[in-house]
Amino acid sequence: MRFFTLPIVLAYISGATSLVIPHSTTYNETASYDGNQNLASQPTAESSRFDYNATYDCGGSIMCPTVKVVWCDEGVNSKLIRNDDVNYGAIGSGKPHFGVCHGQVTDFGCGVIIQGPSHCVRSGNEMWWDYQEIRQWGCHHCGHKYWGDGCSTDVDYWQSCRLVW
């Protein structure tokens, strides 16, 4: 009986510690970076409506390696409102949504959200393209597209998908 309780206790401790890790702790994936933690290459112009003023990085929370890319794909492909109406905005923007989140049989998952001051707003189609560009930059789990004046589209671990709407 003693052999069966150890894995359960370890799983519980692992789960409990994931809830107390501060969001400011960062993780950077292995990729080709310049000195500023930005990827050195750019997405191809023919594959998107690439914004040449934007910058990208593959940073995220320390829980970023636990994010399954399929969760992120599911979020942007089936939960995102894909039109040109500006439905998404940073908290305080007055927009009805700040992002989407999807996980598998759990409350944690992959969030694709708008961050920044209250003037940061995006349509669902713009967020979908932002996600594609973050992936084209080589970000395998998490990443950011900084698109101007303190605004960004973030792909990252989200510990409670039910809070993202």
Description:
This protein has 165 residues and is of the alpha+beta class. Helix content is 25%, strand content 23%. The chain is built from three helices and nine strands; from the N terminus they run αβββαββββαββ. The strands form three sheets. Strands 2-8-9-6-5 form a five-stranded antiparallel sheet, with helices on one face. A two-stranded antiparallel ribbon has the order 1-3. The longest helix is centred in the N-terminal third of the chain and has 17 residues, at 2-18. It is globular, with a radius of gyration of 17 Å. The protein starts with a helix and ends in a 7-residue tail after the last strand. Mean pLDDT is 77; it is low at 1-48.
Order of helices and strands: HEEEHEEEEHEE
User: So how many helices?
Assistant: 3
N→C terminal distance: 44 Å
- Strand order across the largest sheet: 2-8-9-6-5
Q: Mean pLDDT, as a whole number?
A: 77
What percent of residues adopt helix (DSSP H or I)? Answer: 10-25%
What's the topology here?
Blueprint: H1 2-18, E1 26-28, E2 55-57, E3 59-61, H2 69-79, E4 88-89, E5 99-102, E6 109-115, E7 121-122, H3 124-136, E8 143-148, E9 151-158
Antiparallel strand pairs: 1-3, 2-8, 4-7, 5-6, 6-9, 8-9
Give the gist of this structure.
It is built from 3 helices and 9 strands, in the order H-E-E-E-H-E-E-E-E-H-E-E. By secondary structure, the protein is an alpha+beta fold.
